[in-house]
Write a structure and sequence with these properties.
five-stranded mixed β-sheet; alpha+beta; 21 helices; five-stranded antiparallel β-sheet; 14 strands
Amino acid sequence: MAPRKPPSGRIDPVFDAPAPRGGDLRVSADDRVLVTAPPRPGKSGGHRKPPAGKAPYKKSPQGGTFGFFRRTVYWGLVLAIWACMGLAGLVGYYAVRLPSMASWSIPQRPPNARIVSVDGELIANRGTTGGEAMRLDEMSPWLPTAVIAIEDRRFKNHVGVDPVGLARAMFTNVVSGRLAQGGSTLTQQLAKNLFLEPERTLERKVQEAVLALWLETKFSKDEILELYLNRVYFGSGAYGVDAAARRYFNKSARDVTLGEAAMIAGLLKAPSRLSPARDPKAAEERAQLVLGAMKREGFVSDRDIAQSQAMEPKKARRYLTGSQHYIADMVMAQLPALIGEMRDNVIVATTVDLDLQKTAGKLIAEVIAKKGEKLNVSQGALASIDGTGAIRALVGGRDYAQSQFNRAVEAKRQPGSAFKPLVYLAALENGLTPDSIRQDAPVRFGDWTPENYDKKYRGPVTLESGLSRSLNTIAAQLVMESGPKQVIETARRLGIQSPMQANASIALGTSEVSLLELTSAFSPFANGGYRATPWLIRRVTTASGDILYERPSSEMPLVVQPREMGMMNAMLKSVVSSGTGTAARLDGWEAAGKTGTTQNSRDALFVGYTANLITGVWFGNDDGEPMKKVTGGGIPAETFAGFMTAAHIGVPPAPLPGNYERQPDAASDVIAESTVPPFAEGREEGAAGTGLPRPQNEVGADGERRKPRNILELLFGKSG
């Protein structure tokens, strides 16, 4: 069968038939693309020629300056990227170790107690910081500019962390070969002070930077600067510029001069080492550097610097000098009982008259400075209260800077004859009068024989004369008539709280008391018979005015009846007018009081009063060393007069209360042969009822003993 013919125009391929002429479809060698390996270096073989019109390709050389630069830039970028990643990781790691940002807040500044006088004048600031917090616009304008100039001159421009300042500090430290500059900004320093411990670790520096950035987002620059200036440490226990100004220059931060501001700002580098109290020369040199920095920043002119150098900073003589700090100590001791724990800044209003306080401190210091060496006296104290017991002035020693021990409150010393008014009051309450007669003669109680200071005896004398002349024999007899126990009860009623020994020698003030409580015991004679317990704090408020404490009004108990009060005032006025206390006289005012001198002049006191004030003065030595014939009628009475004269300037004179009219006893013209009943040896539970051993008594030079003739003589003596 013949093969089918293909359709017209169709040509089927035939693979094994001979190729048609002119129709060979096979690829020739010239049409094939040969894939061959490139020639190996060093072996023969040519390169393909570049297409026509194109320059031959040349490989860049591997060495040379350009290649080194390329590699340096490349690897530098690589390292920078890795460093940034590492730094970010490190920052993130230490940042997450901080508390949650939601809990971040500015910790409260340690509370400060602003203690003020009755007129609102500042007595002292007390608290951890040593000064009050101040607004930026309240403090001297030199203070913030001085701190910015020396600590962070780019403070207004950075965001909490200053890379430029950090780089500059690093370069300076490398060049100098030592740690000459720090790279921390004021914001970083504030963050450290507020939140972190003062340790030098990488973690703390990273956290410091993170917190600084946070502070910059939460507060303005002025707010950050104000926080910093009120909290940073300036050495010597001073936190904040106000504490530093008071510590080093005894003034408020409001009044700081340019030179003083430069010295305060200079302390920030090394507060303890550069303290003016420790190294004045180093502090001054640092202050000059601060002034130079202020000039470079345009904060001051040459004229300003010249004026500041002409006004040399007046440094505080000592830390916390001034008698008013005895008052501040008392306030801080009493405050917890009134308001509990001090959590906020408070203002404590006291009863103190600051002018009188300064006068009292000056008088005590001047007396010792002028007469201390001659009389061998090294310390003094003064306490002054009004008729309500409000403390108007109180000095605890010659110099608070030398000794903070408060001798007016904490010291217990024998009052000597200054205690006798309480003995005489007990006698008057038993029926005696100022005109009652007693025998001034040698008297013996067992082994004890009291003697008068001048070792003389005057025979029969009135009680008024016995008190004004401070006769020991009369006081001893009155104690034995009333009984020591009754004398102690009388003293307790008038405010003496210290332990007292119920014995005959209490007549001479052998039981130790504080000057303040002895002074308050005289207040019923000055205020009409009422006991006045000493008090100091009137009111405590927060800085915003909320009242935390206000002294409640309270009734003062009547402890001395008008009869006895009038008699006591009549007798104690004679002490000042004609007795042992004439040095305490006041022009234009009725004054009364009592001198006191202990054995061998170890203590010398005068406690006196007008209708306006009651004041006690003491001089002596802390170790009990005898003074050189100092008596209560000497420098204590003189100091009393000086203080009370200053206290009564401009005050209208007023008489002492009471109107005692002398009515001599019927027996006042009779000389008592014996005024003290002889008790048997041993324990006596008789008329006086003391329950204590009572030795036999002997009155008179001959020592002749006689029995009492009746019960009245047994109790009170013949002319009682």
